[in-house]
Fold each of these.
Amino acid sequence: MTATAGDPSPDAATAETGDEPLVQVRGLRMDFPVKSGLLRRTTGHVQAVAGVDLDIHRGETVGLVGESGCGKSTLGRLLVRLLDPTEGSIRFDGLDLAAAEGKQLKQIRRDVQMIFQDPFSSLDPRAPVGDSIAEGLRIHGIGDRKAQTRQVGEMLELVGLRQDHARRFPHEFSGGQRQRIGIARALILRPRFVVADEPVSALDVSVQAQVLNLLRELQQQLDLTVLFIAHNLAVVEHISDRVAVMYLGEVAEIAERITLYRDPKHPYTQALLSAIPIADPSLRRKRIVLQGDVPSPLNPPSGCRFHPRCPIAAPGVCDASDPELRVVDGEDRSSSTAHQASCHLRAGDHQHLDPS
Ligand code: SF4
């Protein structure tokens, strides 16, 4: 996947600790109860998000990547308060998202929006798309009918469609056009923070780059802060300032984009990167094939959650304790955008055990 939009902004990529992040996540957990039997008793919990810390700075795009079931979409839904966490905190512009109610919550609902993978399911098939896009304006009582129609027309043009498309129905559009409508719907309230949950995964490859470029342009034009979720590191490469890799409910590694792609530390990130084809046939990359499937989040492995699949796991260390997300050696430990990894051997305190 190649997107040809300009590179991520250097300002955002080097966001420093002086500014308080727009989004601050600490110790976030989300457990879903598993019910079984006639009486639907709770017999266990799926740990979808298992203690995540994450800062997202103003104007920054953070790519969040991981395999299906790693908890990335659940994390996205927690950040827009479609779900309430089991534990932990989310601060948006200094406000406690979980505690917000009344007027404060209404304002947060304007400021925080989500772009879904399947925009068709969030559009009313019996209503012209203009009505669906204007829904947020109606809910928040912004403008009269005429002003709302004007704003919808402007937004349609902003996402590369025409004003008269507002009168058409969802089934009259292609997949790429529907995603543009989904983006218009999310941006009509001029939010400050957007969670884009696999917004190009359902699109043809030829259309993916167009939608990625559009998102990048809109992010810069509207000064948006974005969490961009994808299951593929290639998709987020050209759109992200920083990239976080999730594995089984935890952040395995996070770094500025160039650092992560050039010098990944976590064995899981290295395996994901090794699967991305290189355009230049003279260059070769050794493919790291992981053994086995992702373990069940209902019963995650002890110690490092990645140890049953890790090619360099150290017995007695990796299966004994869960590594914390730590700043890797040589990085500025005071920076909230420093390269971090959760690996006993590649970050932090067990360097002497590194077998490589
Ligand atoms: Fe592999 Fe051990 Fe590092 Fe986990 S802690 S990623 S098992 S080396």
Amino acid sequence: MAQPQTSEGAESEKPPLRIGMVGYAFMGAAHSQGWRTVGRVFDLPRRPVLAAICGRDATAVRAAADRHGWAAAETEWRALIARDDVDLVDICTPGDSHAEIALAALAAGKHVLCEKPLANTVEEAETMAAAAETAYERGQLAMVGFNYRRLPATALARRMVAEGRIGTLRHVRVTYLQDWLVDPQAPLTWRLRKELAGSGSLGDLGAHIVDLAQYLAGEQLAGVSALTETFVRERPLPGGSARGLSAVTAAGTGQVTVDDAAVFTARFASGALASFEATRYATGRKNALRIELNGERGSLAFDLERLNELWYHDGTEPDVHAGFRRILVTEPDHPYLEAWWPPGHGLGYEHSFVHQARDLVHAVAEGRRPEPSFADGLQVQRVLAAVEESAQKNSVYTPIAV
Ligand code: SOE
């Protein structure tokens, strides 16, 4: 691991960056891990302090504060934002509250980190991006949590594309596969309700792969052609609860109001072609994000299930010994790895959140616009909206004659 901070004194002399987090479930735990660890691994210009965490259930949020190391717990997000000992608000709630919390936090002079997707609608995302722009003029930063950019292998892939190692891009092929909805009896959680999640696989998994594809390609998508499907339209209510649900049946089930899967093709601004698949029905696939880029000079491939590896084919090598080779991304010269373990000692999923925290602390200290910004989050939201529109119109879907 990197040099430990030189002395307790030097570390405590750094100006603090006091974090307030809203939400304490899966993403809250992952972000907590990031904030708790980052200052112990990286030499940062500011010292992250886990000031306060917020959730509606007083007992549960207190337990989360104790488990994850937060100094205080709040049950009202407005109270969290009003605290003088919070500089940055980290939003880890379902998408329906992102806009309201982010706008209030920016108005209160705080920096903001917001989980993906940025919002539930393009309109909300536009308002958030505009508010972030105004806040930036006042010295506040706003970033979206597309954490898969922060893995050493994906960051290395970006570097290699930017260095021209695959040349002119022709194809990007991405799939993000999970299987936790295969069972039709799996409960109707918030992720399956449009009013809370905005969309289904599309916003949850599709947002990640749209961002990652554009980040690696270094360019934006120009258009899409899509199919979406909801395979199981009614599911049992979680714990029999009907809270906030409009459509509850006598059988104690409720309607799934989001997509289960989204498949789309796309064209990049440069003319490169891309294909995307996001689903929660890929039986046996737990969190399988795979991406391959093919360029005129070479190809790169990454698989989240083997996240310390990047595959590279250098098409300029003589055919006789050319081929895909595995780069074990654990060298100190690889992105983020100067601070971690000796070569060969790999990292995991949670480290993407440590790196996200690292990059944001640096951006705040340097007053630099963070990436991905709220404007980047808005652009992804526009891609998601275009996918939904295309799927609804069914415009380019040609049924096969029987
Ligand atoms: C959904 O299943 C989920 O938890 C996403 O919400 C996360 O963003 C993704 O990283 C893992 O899967």
